[in-house]
Amino acid sequence: MRKFFTLWTREVAVYFRSPAAYVILFFFLLLTGFNFYATVSAMNQAPVRFSVVEAYFNTVFFWFGFVLPFPLITMRLFAEEYKLGTIEPLMTAPVRDMQVLLAKYLSAVFFYIVLWAPSLLYFAIFQWQARIGAAGAAGPYLGAYAMLLLMGLFYISIGCLASALTRNQVVAAIMSFAAISLIFYWGFYSRWFPNVSPLLRDLTDYFSAVQHMAMFSQGLIDTRPIVFYLSMTVMMLFFTFQVFQYRRWKL
Amino acid sequence: MIKVENLTKRYAGFTAVDGINFHVGKGEIVGFLGPNGAGKSTTMRMLACYLPPTSGRAEIAGYDVFKDSLRARERIGYMPEHVPLYNDMRVTEYLKYRAALKGVRGRRMKERISDVMELCGLGDVERKLVGNLSKGYRQRVGLADAMVHEPDLLILDEPTIGLDPNQIRQVRELIRNLGRHHTILISTHILPEVEMTCSRVIIINKGRIEASDAPENLRSRLRATGDVRFEARVGDLEKAKADLLGTPGVKGLDVWIEDDWAVFTLATEYAVDPREAIWKLATARQWPVRELSRERVTLEDVFADITHPDE
Please, which residues 75-114 of chain A have a Cβ atom closer than 8 Å to chain B? Predict the structure, then answer.
């Protein structure tokens, strides 16, 4: 456990030591801030039947900003160690492969949380200024942020796998970007092709990030997406573990 | 300390290490020699628990490198070739991180880090970023990292490559001092270095061990067949040639004339030294002699003889 913590601290430190992290944080804040502004401005035009929280997590600005950071925060994890050769001193120290994998994965999750934490401020500021809640109850907050975390866990695990597959960070970024985009767009299938069979529609809806978020940000908690994201995350991490070990046999 | 049995590493289509066997006892400094691509680094990586062997086994301090990898790793200090380091960390920070990974904590960590920093001469650069260090200092950081948890065994892959002569001398000095408390397996191209630091040499070529002995034994083995140089003023050259070829132990000769001196290079039979017979011949014929010597064999010759780089 101590070794895990040592590894994790080192991985987190890498994020916050590089100027790139602050650039990502800055522009991400700009993007999410604009999203908040646009949401509230639009809701000012006419009476609506949804909360600010619900609106915020369902705009196109939100989704665009949401998908973008994953390749950027995960591409480094393994690829850089392969490239610099530092994987060799790392793996000849008495640490388990699983400790290394989880430390890397959870450091990216931590950065992701730091990335999204400031968005809570928007709602606090809204409440302070408008003197009404951004959502009627705690449910939408809980649902929206739970979904944000669940999707984050899954997409980061995809990025982790992509990074373990190559020593080239750009290749890792493109692979995870393509994979995440495909999974994301797959959820739109039934919208774009309305004539599909009900079975296929159910199937694609089951994967639909947009629908998951729409539901959770209303405060409606459904266990199916929770199981889906957690099991997919575990599967991706399992694949990453296999790839990580396999590379040592092959090297 | 190291026990290697039939260790083999095969990659798709070629065998990097082909069933090697050797033992290294506690306190030995063993030099691992071989041309590029001979399988030195692969062997060291397997011993350091980085690469799993295809077949065969290796034990470090009684622990199997594959089955008991974690415990074996705790006893090894490994410095990989080219010393990959995290460039974004400062020297002390890096050593602290590495010490923590290797289970060195608390007060002992403090002591160990100041010890290895002093031993490796890192005092001047403790606050510097690893990425800004010169090659020589990087090497020392790698060495300090390898030693920080007081391992029983140090595995150093080309520790002096890319260093200037002064730095090489310093590192060599350091290794020799370390040999008092550690078992060391060191690979290198630089042969004088091996002669100066190692108590035993293992020569590996094309994945197989070709020789394993003390440097002086290896040299004497080759000396047994070394050429003899003989320079004298021999009136009749043809007659002298015949006389020399008639000397027991002389297999063949080469001759050229330098002013009025004849310079012979005599090939000798294995384990026969014909110098005495030649001296007797020269005195009998009353040839003035200015040189009668046997080639001094260096480890370089042994290395060349065993690995045949020309072929």
Answer: 84-96
Q: Is A49 on the interface with B (CB under 8 A)?
A: no
- For residue A237, what are its two tokens? 């991490």
* pLDDT higher than 50, residue B311: no
The mean pLDDT values, 10 residues at a time, for chain A of 251 residues are 93 90 90 90 83 87 89 94 93 93 97 93 87 80 93 96 95 95 84 80 84 89 93 96 83 53
Q: Mark yes or no for CB contact A85/B80 under 8 Å.
A: yes
User: What are the extents of the domains in chain B?
Assistant: 2-221, 227-294
| Alpha carbons A192 and A130: distance in angstroms, whole number | 38
Closest chain A C-alpha to B122 CA, distance in angstroms: 19
Tell me: pLDDT of B224 over 70: no
pLDDT, average across residues B273-294 = 89
Side-chain-facing half-sphere of B290: CA atoms under 13 Å: 11
Q: Are B287 and B234 in contact (CB under 8 A)?
A: yes
Burial environment of residue B308 by CB neighbours within 10 A (0 to 12, 13 to 18, 19 or more) = exposed
Entry pTM = 0.86
Work out whether the CA dihedral B125, B130, B131, B135 comes out positive or negative. positive
**Domain B227-294 is found in CATH 2.20.25:** no
Instruction: Report residue B142 as tokens.
Output: 């790698």
ipTM entry: 0.87
- What tokens does B238 get? 């043809």
Nearest by CB: A94 against B86, B97, B103? B103
- Write out the two tokens for B59: 């034990």
Tokens standing for residue B51: 């690469």
Match domain B2-221 to its CATH number in 1.10.10.10, 3.40.30.10, 3.30.565.10, 3.40.50.300: 3.40.50.300
Answer yes or no: do B50 and A3 touch at CB < 8 A. no
